[in-house]
Amino acid sequence: MTSEQAFLQNYDPKAFPAVLVTVDTVLLTYHEGDLKVLLVKRGNHPYLGYWGLPGGFLNQSLDLSLEDAARRSIEAKTGIQPHYVEQIQTQGSQDRDPRGWSVSVVYSALMPYQAATQHIDTVDNVAWVRLAELGELSLAFDHAALIEVAVERYRQKALYSFVPVFALPKAFTISQLRQVHEALIDKPIQRKSFLRRVEASGLFKDTGKTQQERGRPASLFEATKGIAEYRFTRNLES
Amino acid sequence: MTSEQAFLQNYDPKAFPAVLVTVDTVLLTYHEGDLKVLLVKRGNHPYLGYWGLPGGFLNQSLDLSLEDAARRSIEAKTGIQPHYVEQIQTQGSQDRDPRGWSVSVVYSALMPYQAATQHIDTVDNVAWVRLAELGELSLAFDHAALIEVAVERYRQKALYSFVPVFALPKAFTISQLRQVHEALIDKPIQRKSFLRRVEASGLFKDTGKTQQERGRPASLFEATKGIAEYRFTRNLES
DNA sequence: CTAATAGTGTCTATTAGACATTATTGT
DNA sequence: ACAATAATGTCTAATAGACACTATTAG
What we know:
Two copies of one chain form a homodimer.
Chain A lengths: L3 H7 L9 E12 L2 E8 L9 E2 L2 E3 L8 H13 L5 E10 L8 E9 L2 H8 L5 E5 L12 H18 L10 E3 H12 L5 H11 L2 E8 L6 E6 L15
Parallel strand pairs in A: 1-6
Antiparallel strand pairs in A: 1-2, 1-4, 2-3, 2-7, 5-6, 8-10, 9-10
The first copy, chain A, binds a DNA duplex through helix 6.
């Protein structure tokens, strides 16, 4: 039996054929009544010219961890560090990438539309695309399915948490927040029920300011710490 | 701009240093009042002689997909194909394995104790270990943390689903099922509340048989199709 | 009989849905 | 005043917790 030290010295990482490891991110926001996902027009083969998710190969020198890699690619495309990031799932198979056995670790983040948009407006290969429009587009790899899984996850969270709040700007009205939840679950939510939950959570701070579109001005709120972890024991109807 | 075909012909998968990709599995069961996890005594460096999770490097020729790899290693260690498998999370960082940048895709499965135990009793490097005992053991890599994440996931599911039923044999009593849920959430559950949910779901088939420990014999039930997907809109208290 | 466990009856408390009512703004 | 949207009042329905009660077995 060799010592661990000797074992590691003799260990050859090239003994096994390499698996392609990419980290892809599903970035979502809410703007003017629509949920939108950030897509990038691919400048390389395969799927050259197709829209796909931001992300790319793991960079073993730059990235200390998978989440590092996700945050790095998010900041590269949007110029901001989102306040909500979670790992969604990992897809890996022999045939999802023509270059070989490929594993994609999928992260997702929610962010305010405005904050990210000033950065992406400066380039023409990055765009927010309405989820409703995705059917018309043919996306690279299995990215359409990856987006679907992320959205389904948020749909569930809209029923028992306030996680969707991270798709809004820092200050927002309760109606706007309700609209994000409604867009996710694709159903109207009773205003009274929703407001009761906002109050019961105790996690929203009234800024004292108001915002008006049409009709009575609405109070502007901010999310406080802990909102990402808060859970209701009873779901909204789905 | 080269054609996609030319690009793929010139593509060299060895241009990037290989990332180590492993698939590890957290196999859980319930037996005699305890939740147990299947551990394997490692026969190789690193962590030679430590207990760790079943799993190993992705085999690019044998495995068509990540889930394939998980199922293959589960069957290798237990001799059975579990009825419930889900992907838990993926951990990856520069320093979790001394051999290099390593990614571990973690799957988890629930299975009946008896079905798997006849197979593992024939070897001495595989064992069911009570979750309560894990604190005394020092596990390989970050496997203790991976188990913790899987158990926490099932703890949540115990509050709004019947997924824990897959840790029991084909026929079981409602008390046994309740005990699995109680072991997961570490709290007693009202028998009446639990039975109400069993009835409301309509997903349990009374076998007509009974089973007796002490006291009144209990009816034996079987799970029917769809139980893995069933969700309550209201959680048990956590 | 008692002990033990399975299973039921029934009351209370909580909370989401429904929907009517009031409040506050612009035109 | 009217339209539009925000915010509240209040009733009902659904369902989990609490816990007492009955049922069925072994010894």
